[in-house]
């Protein structure tokens, strides 16, 4: 029926569930130097999935000029290949705000021995 009202609560729930699945997939991407995933390290600053399946990831690195940029980007592409709604991935490296240890999850701080 063309005039049925859209259930925004159901749509919001579906969007949140999809975002959670994307973040869960990104948790499989491990920073090789630190041995912690990029989500818990706080490297993911934003993500967006458009109606065409383009998933745009805004992320930073622990240091500018990090030699692992290509490794992490390739790993992100591979991890998101398992999310059927994601048809294409674009990774944008951002440097603001600058990353610091306060962006890490409690899990990551404990694993790395940071208070």
TrEMBL record:
| Pfam families linked | FeS_assembly_P (PF01883)
- Gene behind the chain: yitW
Note the superkingdom of the native organism. Bacteria
Give the signal sequence positions: none
Query: Which segments constitute the MIP18 family-like domain?
Result: 19-91
Q: Gene3D superfamilies attached here?
A: Fe-S cluster assembly (FSCA)
Q: Which organism is it from?
A: Latilactobacillus fuchuensis
Q: What is the name of this protein?
A: MIP18 family-like domain-containing protein
